[in-house]
Amino acid sequence: EGKIRQRWSTPDRLPHRWMWLWDSCYHSLAANHLDTSLGWDYVAAVLSSASADGAVAIERTPRTAGGKVDQTQPPLLVWAVHSNWRAAVRAGVPATTIAQRLAYAVPRLAAYLRWDMRHRSDPSGRSPLLRWTHGTESGMDNSPRFDGGVSDLLAVDFSVFLARESKLLAELEAEVGNATEAAVWRGVSANVSAHVHSLL
After folding, report:
1. Which helix (H) or strand (E) holds 95?
2. Helix (H/G/I), strand (E/B), else coil: 10
3. Cα distances (Å, whole numbers) of residue 38 to 53, 88, 176
4. In this structure, how many other beta carbons lie within 10 angstroms of the beta carbon of residue 18?
5. Residue 153 pLDDT
6. For residues 73 and 62, what is the distance between their CA atoms, to the nearest angstrom?
7. Neighbour tally for 54: CB within 10 Å
8. DSSP E strand boundaries for 43-198
9. What angle do CA 62, 39, 80 make, to 5 degrees?
C-alpha cells in the first residue's frame, strides 16, 4: 500500500499517466501468473483512487485520484481481488499478507458496488437491475445498442456483472469473518440474478 501511494504521489515519474478500471483488472489477472504481488498492486492502485463515497472512475490520473466520478466501467474489481487472493494462496504468500490485502480491499469493494446500486439503478425503481449512463461506461463504446440513448436502458451485462461481483464479494466477506455482510451480498446476487432471468 505504501508503494502504491508513493507511485501516485509522484506523477512526473510515471511513464503512463492514465489508469483504466477494467484494464487494470485484466492486467492483474495476467500478472498473477508472474507475481501475485504485482497482480495485487494493479487492483490496490485502482481501489486507492476511489472517491470518498466509494465510486471508482472509468479512469484516473495521479491528479484526479479521489475526485468526483462521472463515469465508471464494468465492475470487475471483486473478481480481480478474488482471483489475486486465490493465486496468492496457491503461491504460498504468507497468510498475514493475504489477510492485510483483504482487510484493505473488502470494504472498498463493498462501497463501490453500493455506489453502483445507488447511482446506476433502474430509474423505475421496480427492479435491482442496473443501467449505464454513458455508452462508454460499458466498454462497447460504439455499439448501436446506445443509438437511442442510455438513460432508461436496463443493461443485462452490467446487471450480470453485479450478480457475479456480489457472489464473489460474499466469499471474500466470509473469508474476513463478516458473516452478516456475506449473507447480504449473497442475497443481492440472488435477487439480481433472478431479475435478469425474469426480465431480460
Report:
1. helix 95-119
2. coil
3. 27, 11, 22
4. 12
5. 84
6. 18
7. 19
8. 59-60
9. 90
Taking phi first (over 0 means left), then psi (-120 to 50 degrees means alpha), and beta for anything else, what does residue 66 get?
Answer: left
Q: What is the 3-state secondary structure (H, E, C) of 111-153?
A: HHHHHHHHHCECCCCCCCCEECCCHHHHCCCCCHHHCCCCCCC
Question: What's the rounded Cα separation, in Å, for the pair 120 and 132?
Answer: 6
Q: Check residue 50 and give its pLDDT.
A: 94
Placement of cell 439503478 in the chain: 121
Q: Which residues contact 91 (CB under 8 A, 6 or more apart)?
A: 36
Q: What is the DSSP letter of 42?
A: H
- pLDDT of 175 reads 98
The label of the residue with cell 439480481 reads 192
The 3-state DSSP class for residue 93 equals coil
Q: Average pLDDT per run of 10 along the chain, which is 200 residues long?
A: 46 62 96 97 95 92 83 95 98 98 98 97 94 89 80 89 98 98 98 96
pTM: 0.89
Q: How far is CA 125 from CA 8, 128, 140, 152, in A?
A: 39, 8, 25, 11
